[in-house]
Give the backbone structure.
Amino acid sequence: MSVVGKSVRRPDVPGKVTGAARYAGDLALPGMLHAKLKRSTVAHALIRRIDFSRAMKLAGVKAVLTHESVPRVLHYGSPHPRSASLACDQYILDRKVRYWGEAVAAVAAESEEIADEALDLIEVEYEELPALLTVENALASSVLIHDTKNNLVTDPVRVKRGDVDKGFAEADLVIEGTYEMGRPTPAYMEPNVCVAQWQEDRLTMWISTQTPFMVRGILAEVLGLPLAKVRVLVDHMGGGFGAKQDLFQTEFLCALLAKQTRRPVRLEFTRKETFLGGRSRHPGKVWLKQGFRKDGTLTARQARVTLNSGAYGSHGPGVTAVGTAALTSLYRCDNLMLEGKCVYTNTPIAGAYRGYGVVQTYYALDIQMDEAAERLGMDPCALKLQNAVREGDIAPSNHAVVGHGLEDCIRRGMQEVNWPVKKKTKNRGWGMGCEMHGSSAYPGIKEQGNATVRLNEDGSAQLFTGTTGLGTGAHTALAQIVAEELGLRFEDVSVVHGDTDVVPWDIGAFASHTTYMGGRAAQMAAAEVKKQLLERAADALEASAADLDVSLGMIRVKGSDKSLAVKALVSPTRGVPSKQFVASATYTPTKSYSFAAHFVEVQVDTETGQIDVLQVVPVHELGKVIHPVAAAGQIEGGIQQGIGHTLTEDYVIDPVTGRSLNAGFVDYKMPLSLDMPPIRTILLETAPDPGGPFGAKGVGEDPIIAIGPAIANAVYAAIGVRFRHYPITPEQVLEGLKSR
Amino acid sequence: MKISLGVNGEKRELEIEPYRSLLDVLRNDAGLTGTKKGCDVGDCGACTVIVDGKPLNSCLMLGVEAQGCEVVTIEGIRHPLQEKFMDLGGAQCGFCTPGMIMMAKALLDEKPHPTEEEVRFAIAGNICRCTGYTRIVEAILHVSRR
């Protein structure tokens, strides 16, 4: 292949290294007002009275909105197509407050400073309700956070296969444990931001979102507008990692403030607000029990997964379903009984975040496999290899697995690090973790990828795609796929994106499906344009279209030296191109799985309790690598976030008041440049998926999953203390060493 | 109030609010939005610019303090770092990139051949959430070896 598989220069990066790239927050419109949100100072309460008369008297304040002045429309917290993945439990502003820091009013003013000052002049009187700050409290209490019969976001997820009782009866070893997960947040660098402007009755919104068409849809629905009256624009985005699929209520408030003031309105979160009003990963507990025969064969697996959704449902139902279903696989087991619960609490909202429930459940699973290996007297890699999911097995999505990706990753990693690694230094150790993750959200969402490819009269091509540029390089991968399929040079393909008025409908950039699904749609559209081209060329070259091929912009008759440049074929005669070559394609994918095994070496300082990750060798099976540097970049970044959530990152909520205790980058500790170890990334292409473009599968979510258990297992190898939770803090390491 | 300063080699007279940070002055009053606001409290480094030869967080300096100073932003440089960031995967979402490149430039201006440890130390106040820093460090070291 001439374009796919090459690390071409990403067209989005020149603007990023020169400062020319425009993000939603860079926009300044004439007459633009600035909005700020008043946030609650209690965790659970009814609003008795809200008085903003003093705020309105402040010079420069143009409008204030409260629950009394916004449309009361119940809506989904994330604007996905209606599906089982989401909860419908939000109002633009409500008369009830469900967590500390929830928005209760919005102000638009001439400057951010005036808007800020006005917030202090808004008086809110609360009638406090008991705050349910833990899952245990929420499940035991008769106090309800929403109008539901209990504090569950959705009915429990249940998966049953075979007979677990029989499986446990056949086991020589039964092992069980409870594993606990903290509250990491995506902490994207670009705070949430949007700008709303009305032109007559038409709303335009510039926004940092992963799902512009979904934002368009829900704005139209909640504000009572036809779709054609809403235009959503997204150019560059400063990261999202899943969380920017949600609505943050700012979209509605910005639009309503702009309508009321007849001025454009901009609302940007402060960094603190990205914690308060953003989305975290679901904190959770996983009780897991497995049975093994002496030879290592798994006989039964039983689990109860309990996730803390926070004050709203957001992606809770989807995260619970995906995380729980993930326990059906990775290591083959015929007898399964799994239950997943998602619980409302009066804490900040958990939502979609890279790994989507699987981070939590595979943390438990992969640590327990390590524990079982020791009890069985087996090497953990050998135990995992023996039980590894393989071709034809039923994946969590109920599809047959393609290829032997997991085994390939484990074997290659073992070779790379020379496993089992002999312990040479005290308090150092190696561990490994595995994962598989689906490309696309099917079957939770019936997915669809769309693309239009059009040739310009100079022979270059334009891809129209609705997918957003999160920063992953997805548009580059899509352009590579089009160039490869169409037989053009990479430089001759450009990408049009980011405008719901122009590009084909798109479900959004999430679920590791952009290259897999959007790429396949782009490939299909390109193939159709190629067909049109070759049919046209057949006449010119006096050959059958079937005998023609196109590569790097030249159409050739196979087995002869007759050729014609694409440019010559489409080029204008007297100013008019020979024809409009254009095609659209729709691709409805099912699902494929990518696999990984992470090998990690850690060192534990037994005096301070500090865990240092010394090196990581991630092996990922991706079917086909479209852009090696971008793929490796996804993996390295995912590992960074995974090291963070395993060792240092935890968004802490005060157990008494529900206040956020560390909503900022000084107290919420992410890995910095000095904390990151060398990462030797290995990409495999051993199990290409027939559903992906050129066999390609997703890579975005995978790398954050396996790193966590790999670290916990390495810590055990280093100091013999087993940790079954994250983050693993130095204090806990010291405690653990004492009780060793 | 009025301030006069050099921005990317050009003398600018700006009418600014006295309480505005240099970051807001650059973005809103000078129209240079390449410098990013990631936290506004000096924690993330996305707003790093070079003032009189020294890198600093422009969110922590008042605009008025820049009176008479020479400020260089991402828009004002053409540096081999930019090429290497593009080629080696040093930029993903790009939001930390301007600050990261300005910090790296300040380092290389002062110390043209740093060790990897020195590079990592220099950018320790610049948070990147996409790359794991691996390729950023590689890009900076690449330039330093030229």
User: Anything to note?
Assistant: The helical segments of chain B are 22-29, 80-88, 97-110, 116-122, 134-144. Residues 2-75 of chain B form a domain with the Ubiquitin-like (UB roll) fold (CATH 3.10.20.30). The longest strand of chain B covers residues 2-7. The beta strands of chain B are 2-7, 10-15, 48-51, 54-57, 70-72.
